[in-house]
Specification:
With 732 residues, this protein is α+β, with helices and mostly antiparallel strands. The chain has 14 helices and 35 strands.
């Protein structure tokens, strides 16, 4: 019997210490597989980067990575070779507002679209005679292309188990109401599908399935990790617990609670099978707190460090059984890719030549990922598409670039609101429709309601590499005044005009174009209050013009850098002679304004406005005017501090200005303005500034979500009276 006891004791001494009693078969002596599971949670998911940092310090390199929503993005990047420091750096560089809102950078807008930048507060899709809400508020355009760029180091890999660390993510089939495992295909698409929050982002179609955020059914996919073959599961869950009765006091929280119910049981089940569960304290953060990334990452690191001793013991135990997995190489975004083929998917009405022209990448070109990103941004900025994404496939010694386009099959009905001292309150309604009558066309109609009603019709045919053709009809109504030497109104008139244009325009770049056109003009000037016995004036003209324009502003209002230039020559021919023996005139106009950024929040903005008419006689509407702080569309009205709108006029005018713009808080500005100039009968007299008008002003400005808000005080040597100016909303 004693001999039997001795044998048993000897056998027990041969049994090694257990790493995790229920996980390791000590007889096989096979190193257990470690899986890392990352939950969804929006911006709170940044905490997972802090956890990964601690895992790296502990020497843990997981054998599998899986995640949902934000966890799929963090996990996918980690699996293909981004370490914690790289991801932290990436997040710090991202403009989250631009990324999540699908904002188009102004530099990517074509110059014809820049005219409409910042004019509308609301827009509604209009399809087949009725309004229709989209499947999501955002198409995820910018996110999709960022993910394509970040995953480009592994564009050749279509099976996610072949990544440096085998990876999977989870999405939800919104049609069938079930969870979907994504472990193959185009990695960027899988990650984009997994984080496609319903109603916020449009669903993404993969293998004929309409997929949305995987967190809808499984926001912590630990059970899938178990099925993948993981013996030991390390999990990071940033979801909060269910709200209490006292906390359920807002619609937002009630809706969030409903979503929590759907996935709560799956999360609880997943936590039960997790061996090392890390719960960062991020309950006081929102899923949209993307600007608080640093502190959220720190919370994740802090939570993981509490478990660091246990994690180090795990590493020591694993290393007694088998060698640690090899360190994976760092992800490197390719700088040079040879384009061996280009394919376009989804084109129906928009000509391929137009897309090719905007893309400006051709077979045989060598491109970087930055080049591709900029090309896709340019194409999307044409606004003919709901979505423009790309996919890379290996081809010979280079790539096949697949450009995937989703054409807009609807129009937009948009609305703008504006108020200022000069034109008072007005509403602008716009209808914008693409591919009407001809492919590649744009039809836009404006209706302005207010004291000065207006109407505008534009039909524009984009011909790709060839010059574009357009026609427009505009009507405007405006109150104009005569002033005495003290700036007091002495007479008022009602001016109306209709302009019918046919023009040809060549787009040189997104910031530059030239054009020529013909114009039929009808106008009337009717007295309202006047001490003079003047009759009503009605005239008609046939005009020819040529123009050159540049727009490089970084933003439409309160620009920090960039500028605008308008040069126009116009030949005006009178059709009737209702008032004077008026035959013809040549008008030359130059308007220049440029913002020079001298520090991160200070810009100097000089401006030059000059116009001259070569004519024996000139009617009212073709004169040049100075006065007012209004930056409206009329190119013959030059702003001037300390004067009323259009206070002085003549055959020629000069207005020079310089603004010092200081952004003292985000989107809040103080602008100090100076103007000098004059009007004259002859252009050569303009440059004599010895008796010029001079004005100064100060403006507080706020670049608000509904447009610029400006409050100005100004004075000039013309009247020596302090004038005020209020502007609310977008100019139009």
């Amino acid at each position: 019997m004693n001999r039997i006891y001795k044998i048993l004791i000897f056998l027990l001494l041969l049994v090694p210490l257990s790493i995790s009693a229920q996980k390791i078969d000590s007889n096989k002596r096979v190193r257990p597989k470690v899986g890392l599971v990352l939950s969804g949670g929006g911006a709170k998911g940044f905490a997972q980067i802090g956890v990964i940092k601690v895992l790296e310090e502990a020497g843990i390199r997981p054998d599998f990575v899986g995640g949902t929503s934000m966890g799929s993005i963090i996990g996918g990047l980690y699996a293909l070779g981004y370490d914690s420091e790289s991801m932290k750096h990436l997040i710090a560089e991202i403009n989250w507002d631009e990324l999540l809102n699908d904002k188009i950078s102004r530099r990517d807008l074509s110059i014809e679209e820049k005219n409409e930048d910042g004019r509308y507060i609301f827009s509604f899709p209009f399809r087949k005679s009725h309004f229709e809400l989209p499947a999501g508020l955002r198409s995820g355009q910018n996110i999709s292309n960022l993910l394509s760029k970040l995953t480009s180091p592994v564009y050749q890999i279509s099976r996610f188990d072949k990544l440096p660390i085998p990876f999977y993510c989870v999405a939800a089939d919104i049609e069938k109401g079930e969870s979907v495992l994504l472990n193959s295909g185009y990695l960027a698409d899988a990650m984009r599908a997994s984080m496609s929050i319903p109603t916020l982002f449009t669903p993404i179609e993969i293998d004929n399935r309409m997929l949305v955020d995987g967190g809808l059914f499984d926001n912590y996919p630990a059970e899938i990790m178990k099925r993948q073959g993981a013996d030991i599961i390390i999990g990071v869950d940033v979801q909060r617990t269910l709200f209490t009765k006292k906390e359920l006091r807002s619609i937002k929280r009630v809706v969030e609670q409903m979503g929590n119910f759907l996935r709560n049981q799956a999360t609880l089940d997943g936590r039960k099978i997790t061996d090392y569960l890390i719960l960062p304290d991020v309950e006081h953060y929102s899923i949209t707190d993307f600007d608080k990334a640093d502190s959220i990452i720190e919370r994740g690191e802090r939570a993981a460090r509490l478990m660091l001793p246990a994690l180090r013991k795990l590493v020591d135990s694993l290393n007694t059984i088998g060698p640690a997995p090899k360190k994976i190489p760092s992800a490197v975004i390719p700088n040079q890719l040879i384009v061996r083929a280009i394919k376009y998917e989804g084109l129906i009405k928009v000509p391929e030549a137009d897309v090719q022209n905007r893309l400006d990448i051709y077979v045989g070109d060598t491109v970087s990922m930055d080049d591709l990103s900029k090309a896709i941004d340019r194409t999307y900025a044409s606004q003919y598409f709901d979505n423009v994404t790309y996919k890379l496939e290996p081809k010979d010694d280079g790539i096949c670039l697949i450009v995937r386009l989703l054409e807009k099959d609807y129009g937009l009905v948009r609305m703008g609101v504006h108020y200022d001292n000069d034109f008072e309150a007005s509403l602008l309604f716009n209808g914008d429709f693409r591919n009407v009558l001809f492919n590649g066309s744009k039809l836009s109609v404006d209706i302005g309601l207010g004291r000065n009603p207006r109407f505008s019709f534009l039909y524009y045919l984009n011909n790709g590499r060839w010059p574009n053709i357009g026609t427009s009809i505009k009507t405007n109504t405006l109150d104009v005044y005569n002033y005495d030497q003290d700036g007091n109104k002495t007479a008022s008139y009602r001016y109306s005009e209709m302009l019918v244009d046919l023009f040809v325009e060549s787009i040189i770049s997104n910031s530059m174009s030239v054009g020529i056109g013909s114009q039929f003009e009808m106008s009337s000037l009717r007295k309202a209050v006047s001490p003079l016995q003047l009759g009503n004036v009605e005239q008609a003209f046939f005009n020819l013009y040529a123009y050159y324009k540049v727009d490089t502003y970084d933003r439409a209002f309160f620009p920090r850098k960039g500028g605008s230039l308008w040069i126009e020559g116009k030949l005006v021919n009178g059709i009737n002679k209702a008032v004077a023996d008026y035959d013809a005139a040549t008008l030359i106009t130059l308007k220049y304004r440029n913002a020079f950024k001298v520090s991160h929040n200070v810009s100097i903005i000089p401006s030059v406005n000059i116009g001259a008419a070569i004519a024996d006689s000139l009617p009212f509407q073709h004169r040049y005017f100075i006065g007012g702080a209004n930056f409206g569309e009329n190119r013959q009205i030059f702003p001037f501090m300390g004067m009323n709108l259009m206070q002085h006029s003549d055959y020629s005018a000069l207005a020079l200005g310089c603004d010092l713009q200081y952004e003292f808080h985000r989107n809040h500005f103080l602008v100090f303005k100076y103007s000098i100039g004059r009007t004259a009968r002859k252009v050569e007299t303009l440059l004599n500034l010895s008796n010029a008008y001079q004005g100064i002003g100060m403006t507080y400005g706020y670049n608000s979500p509904i447009g610029p808000i400006e409050l100005s005080l100004m004075i000039s040597n013309n009247t020596n009276k302090v004038l005020s100016f209020i502007n609310l909303g977008y100019w139009f």
